[in-house]
Structures are given as structure tokens and as C-alpha cells.
Amino acid sequence: MNTIRTFAGIPEECGKSSTASIVLIPVPYDGTSTWGKGADKGPDALLEAAENMELYDIETGTEVYTHGIYLAPAIEEGSSPEAMVEEVYNVTKDYVNRKKFTTLVGGEHSISIGAIRAMNESYEDLTVLQIDAHADLRKEYNGSRYNHACALFEANEQTNLIQVGIRSMDAIEKTVMKKDQVFFAHEMIQDDYWMDTAIDLMTENVYITFDLDAFDPSILPSTGTPEPGGLQWYETLEFLRRVFDEKNVVGFDLVELCATGNYKPSAFAAAKLYYKMLSYKFEGEQGDFEYDNQEISETKMKKHDTDQEYEDGEF
To answer: How many Å apart are CA 239 and CA 101, to the nearest integer?
Structure first.
């Protein structure tokens, strides 16, 4: 049994920072959200769900954990939005410099500001692909430039920003929005070629910031600001797989899982999406580690049984 926590309960050897190809940085921050709270509990909810997830991906026929996934210490900086963004920037830049495929799990969408800033310094001619219900293009909100409503303002100014799934915004955001690079949900439903158009607008290097409220609430309701009329599961996976196939995705983040109420189906969907995106990135590449999946499954089952006994008060 693992003596340290690893992503999805993978063997410790697959989770070492020195050898893993992938790093997952949890950022449990919820300092500026304005409606539903609970995004700070999102990373732990996703990680708990992942421990009950199969490690074989049927679609790609791969087991991406064999490339190594290092679960980094959570970024706990919360003294101010500015301090949080700076810490996310520093940690992200460090792992990118170490040649890790760097991913983050939030937390609210403001965590993406620091990550995008680090990626933009590290990769030439960067495209930021924002998959989201909200435009998040305000220059300032509630007295801060680092509010979740401002999460993509800097990216819009400094990178090639492409926005997909948008269906909620303030009128002021129209003044800065690159309208030819925005794919509104109500237009996408009538456009059979929106994926082709979006991919054609991308440069070679792409960073993906995925706000989980991009999904229709019938699929993933546990977000801070759910919006009707969102993306469906398989159309989203089709689009993502094409992006990973046709472009060099340099990293990504998943944000706005709100772990309150009956959040477990949403948390599992988020964990599955995270693993899917990794599977698309490393499809066709041989991992460095090989393990008996039956042994891993039995280890995870023992852990699940032990956790349940604790919950039931038997210890």
C-alpha cells in the first residue's frame, strides 16, 4: 500500500518528482468567487474521485500513469489574490523549466493567471484555449485585477486567446473581446465546422484552461456559476483530442469544481476529464513504468475498504 498519496493511487515509483513526466499542482484557492463557494475543496474532491477511477483508457488503449504523474504539494498561498497569482507563477515556471508536462487543478479560475503568465514566458507564440461558459475578460472586478472574472484579461492582451463555449458575459467585455476568436455556445450548436475553425486559429503551442462550467449543468452541476446550454461530454472530448493531435499542447488547468452538496458525480467527471487529457497528450508514446494492474486494483480496493472503515467508526 502507498505510504504517500499519489494521483489515483498509482505506485509510488510512478509518482516521484525526479522521474515523472507529468506534474499535477493542486491550487485550493477560493478567494474571489462571488456566488457558489467550494472551489477550494475542488482539488481534494478530484483526487479522491481519481482514486476510484480505472487507469486503462479504452478510447486510446493506453495507461498514461506509466509516464509518471507527480502530485506536487498544494499551493496554499491565500493572503491576497496578488500573492496567490505570484506563487502559482513561480511554481509553474519551476516545473516547466524542469521539462515537466505541467498541469494544475483549482480552485477558482483566477489561479490560471499565474500559470498562463509562466507558460507565455516559456513558449513562443502561445495560444491560450479557454473552454468556459464565461468570458472572464474584465480588466478589474471588485477592486482586483486578479478576480476570477478577470482570469483571461491578461491572456487576451498578451497571447493568442481563443474562447470556446461562451454564453455569459458583461457588455464591457465586448470592448476588448477578439470577436473572430470567440465561439459562442448558441452559434456552435448550428455550426458543424466550429472545431475546424477554432483549430485553424491556433498557433503551434497551445495552453488549455478548462473551466468546468463549460459543460452543461446536466453533466457537471457542481460549479460555482453553472450556466444552461453548455457543452456535451463527447463533443468536448472530440474537440480536445483533435487539439492534442494537431497542436503541441504545453500544459493545462482544470478549474471551478465546487465541492459542496452532492458533488461526487461532478468530481468523478472532472477526474475522468483530467486523465483523458493526459491520455490524449501521451497517446502513441511508451511510458517508463510497467505494473500489474491487478495488483494496483487490489491495493486501491484495500485502501477504499480501510477508508470506509474509518468513516463507519470501526477504528
So the answer is: 20
